[in-house]
Structures are given as structure tokens and as C-alpha cells.
Design goal:
It contains 11 helices and 9 strands. It is of the alpha/beta class and about 280 residues long. It has a 6-stranded parallel beta sheet with strand order 1-4-3-2-5-6, sandwiched between helices. Strands 7-8-9 form a 3-stranded antiparallel beta sheet. Helix 10 runs antiparallel to helix 11.
């Protein structure tokens, strides 16, 4: 397993792979790896010649400085885990390597970035787009793998690929959950024991919402979900939102929709957690 810290090293490897007609499968991460990440990597390894993983805590996608400061970091642990999935290359640059100058780049994703995470975390998706664009340019993957827990981010990246005409296949991967239903996330390590015991209620309520959809209109289910999450005194609800599965706009009726998901974001203690479930 090679570990590259500079853009030049990574570009040299990618150029050589392309010359040989070798396919790169790419999994971008911010480290603090868990089994959800490793599942993405196993799929990428299976479907490509090389598995390349980036580890870079991207400061420009954090609108909360405290969240950036507390984001878990343990590169040695991450490298040990990457060996278990036979990772070929780790790209782990510094902030100064990725951003030698102040970032002024702006992206516009229209209505898609004006709801949910985009509305509650100003600048977040621009920061995501800047770093993913740069990583795609450096790594030059044939396929890139993203988890559906960050569903809005997945759609933003698909739009970025279209807008920039990147020859990259964006591969969505299903949410990986703990045995108790909690969606795997690097942030879970920041939950204390009491919070960790409460966190599976998020998925339990989402499953209840899916069942209620058989009896309620979208408007009624929206109100039901908001009320249900607010009943949990430890949860500080940021949003519960029903949205279509392509532009994430609010849903008025079931019949005109080809796909609808229910999304939730909330604070549990000092930790912000998100999850979603497909309704139809």
C-alpha cells in the first residue's frame, strides 16, 4: 500500500495507471474510517484494478469551527484498516498542499443546495464541490463511490460531474447500519454511552414514518414526523423533510412522484446526526 502526501505523487501514479489502461476506483473520505467506508472500498476494489482512498479533513466544508476542531482524526488507525481491504494507494495531503491559496471558487447547484443540509449549513456544499472537483482532477478515477447516508451530497456530486464533464461514474452505495439500526458515521465515536444508547431511535422513527405513509398524505406525514422526533427529549430536531429523490423538493402528493425519501437531521448532545429512508 502506497501512501502519497503530495499532489504530484498522486498524479504520477494516476497518469501511469491510465497509460496502462488500468481502472481506478476512488473512495474520498475524511478519515475516522468505519465499516461503512470499508464496504464502499470492498466494492471499489472488486470493480477496478486499483483502489485509491483519500483521507483529507476538508476545512472549507465546515461552517462550524468547533465541529471541524472536534472531527475525529487517527491516521495510523485508518491506515491499519485500509490494509484490511487491500487498498492500493492512500492520498493523504495537508491543507496547505490542497489549498496553497485562499479558495474563492463558487459553484451553483440551484434548488438542490437550498434545502436541508444546504439551508442549515451555508457554504457546506460549495466546500464539498471544491474538494471533490480537485480530488477528481488529481486522482482521475474511472469510478467514485459515495454512501447514500449523505444522499443530498451524492446528488450534488452527480450534478458536479455533469457540470464539469468529468469522465467519472458516480456509484451510490446503500447505507451501512450498526446491528441496532444506527447509520454508521465517523461522528458516532463522539457520542457518550447514554447518547449512543438513544441514537438508534432515529432509524426506528424513520421506519415508523415509512409505515405511516400507507395511511397519511405527505403533508400529514411531514407533521407526524416532526412531532414524533420532537417527542424524544434528547433530540434537538434540525429538520424532518419529505422530498423527491432527484431535486429534493417538498412533496405534495404520492401519485405524481417516482421516488420519495424522508430525511432527518438532529443534534444529540454536541453531535449532529443525519439519516434517511426511502418511502416510495
Amino acid at each position: 500500500m502506497k501512501v502519497f502526501n503530495t499532489i504530484a505523487q498522486m498524479q504520477e501514479f494516476s497518469a501511469d495507471a491510465r497509460r496502462q489502461g488500468k481502472a481506478i476506483g476512488f473512495v474520498p473520505t475524511m478519515g475516522a474510517l468505519h465499516q461503512g467506508h470499508l464496504d464502499l472500498m470492498r466494492q471499489a476494489k472488486k470493480e477496478n484494478t486499483y483502489l485509491v482512498v483519500s483521507i483529507f479533513v476538508n476545512p472549507i466544508q465546515f461552517n462550524n469551527p468547533e465541529d471541524l476542531e472536534k472531527y475525529p482524526r487517527d491516521l495510523n488507525r485508518d491506515l491499519d484498516l485500509l490494509k484490511t481491504v487491500a487498498c492500493d494507494v492512500v492520498f493523504a495531503p495537508t491543507v496547505s498542499e490542497m489549498y496553497p491559496e485562499t479558495v474563492t471558487e463558487k459553484h451553483d447547484f440551484g434548488a438542490l443546495e437550498q434545502v436541508m443540509e444546504g439551508a442549515t449549513r451555508p457554504g457546506h456544499f460549495n466546500g464539498v464541490a471544491v474538494v471533490v472537483k480537485k480530488l477528481f482532477e488529481i486522482v482521475q478515477p474511472l469510478r467514485a463511490y459515495f454512501g447514500e447516508k449523505d444522499y443530498q451530497q451524492l446528488l450534488v456530486i452527480k450534478k458536479l460531474v455533469q457540470k464539469e464533464h468529468f469522465p467519472v461514474q458516480v456509484i451510490p452505495c446503500a447505507i451501512i447500519r450498526e446491528p441496532d439500526g444506527l447509520a454508521m458515521s465517523s461522528r458516532n465515536t463522539r457520542l457518550n454511552a447514554e447518547e449512543r444508547a438513544l441514537a438508534p431511535r432515529i432509524y426506528q422513527i424513520l421506519r415508523e414514518a415509512k409505515q405511516q405513509a400507507a395511511f397519511l398524505s405527505p403533508d400529514a406525514l411531514q407533521k407526524w414526523g416532526e412531532a414524533r422526533f420532537r417527542e424524544e427529549k434528547s433530540f434537538d430536531l434540525v429538520y424532518f423533510q419529505l422530498a423527491d429523490d432527484t431535486e429534493l423538493q417538498p412533496v405534495n402528493d404520492w401519485k405524481s412522484q417516482s421516488g420519495v425519501l424522508a430525511f432527518v437531521a438532529l443534534q444529540l448532545g454536541s453531535v449532529r446526526l443525519i439519516d434517511n429512508i426511502r418511502i416510495i
